[in-house]
Automatic annotation (TrEMBL):
Keywords: Dioxygenase, Iron, Oxidoreductase. It comes from the Bacteria. Coiled coil: none annotated. Gene3D superfamilies: Uncharacterised protein PF07063, DUF1338. InterPro entries: HGLS, YdcJ_bac-like. This is 2-oxoadipate dioxygenase/decarboxylase. The keyword Oxidoreductase applies. It is an enzyme of class 1 (oxidoreductase). GO terms for molecular function: dioxygenase activity.
Amino acid sequence: MSQFVCKDEIRLKFSQAMSDMYQTEVPLFGDLLKLVNDVNGKVLEEDPELKQKLQETGELERLEQTRHGAIRIGKKEELHTMRRIFAVMGMYPVAYYDLAPAGIPVHSTAFRPIDPESLIKCPFRVFCSLLRLELIEDADLRKQAEEILAKRNIFSPRAIELVEKFEKDGGLEQADADEFVKEVLETFRWQSEAAVSKETYDALHNQHRLIADIVAFKVPHINHLTPRALDIDAVQRGMFERGIPAKDIIEGPPRRKCLILLRQTSFKALNEDVQFVYGEERVPGSHTARFGEIEKRGVALTPKGRKLYDELLAKVLDETANVDMSKDAESYYAVLKKYFDEIPDCYDQLHEQGLAYFRYKLADDATLDKEVTENNASELVASGVLKLEPITYEDFLPVSAAGIFRSNLGGAEKREYDEASNRALFEQNLGESVLDPFEIYSKIQKDSIDALNKKA
Ligand code: OOG
Ligand code: NI
């Protein structure tokens, strides 16, 4: 009898192996983790109620688990195989992100667990960006990049064998699962030896630093990992205090009591030694790509809530276009707060106005004497029969992602690609459609109603 290892278990092993590897590769990331642990420890000490809640949900023991990482890949075959690799770990493509309007020549998805139970066991997800070669303006260079990418194979033959075995048998046994994690890790390992000459690197770099980061290396090194911070503002301050080169601002919505969506910040990418390769010759040089990030997640917004978020953020960015963030982050935060005051900072209100997703739970000591529907839920909340539990946002934000990309690509990169977004091509390359995050959240909300009606 075969005994397949649970996919959540494989993902957990993989995320831990990745975190160990990255701390060795990028010691500053280890320093960031230490800072995050210090801040989280302090928050828990000062807020026993929060500690209790995290304990009840099992979150406390998982607090130190890595929340996400990111990779950038170069060709459609890589995206296709990446999807198969992540499926072994119970990670599926959710949402399409087009970064081109923000001047980043990639489009992306996030491979992530979907079921709430899987997310709880191990929330690790990977933001995966595919280079849009058609956005390289110089035709000769585009052709050269294509040729370089055509020659590379970023997966080990054994990793592919194990994926095939998984697909055929429907799972992996322990020894295979362990070997799978070990083999796949190699695809994300830093290579200090580039795949190209200094001259080619410089030409790619002149088009866009991101293009050099993707094309000039043998494998798509993990470019950052992200733990969860209970107080992201405190970690941002702590980075400045401890001399960790933090990016200027925290991306996303402002600090608030009832956090919406996602806030994130990072330390700026390090300048690292690499060897460029020209025949037998090795030419020393450097490359800047890898960093460390932190995140704090809030409640998921409905399409209506998200539309409002996008509109308000656009106004903020417009009004702060001339603010020098490195000197005057406070002005930016003030404008951010001013506009976002329009979104109620109260779960009941967010629910009432249909702006966010919630699980409905029966209030303590309450009894249910009628069927719950989407329509009467608000009433039952108001009368105290039901209570609301916010559904956490598990995806990414394109404007924030662009901000993270940009601050790690050097501030000088300011251009726009007006090429239309190409989701259909992305999905064709991927080999399936990306899942719609709104459908996932709305199903969790509906399932909570069904569960109440079943109990009654
Ligand atoms: C990915 C940036 C996106 C996030 O947290 O929004 C991201 C990258 O730099 O490759 O990870
Ligand atoms: Ni990130």
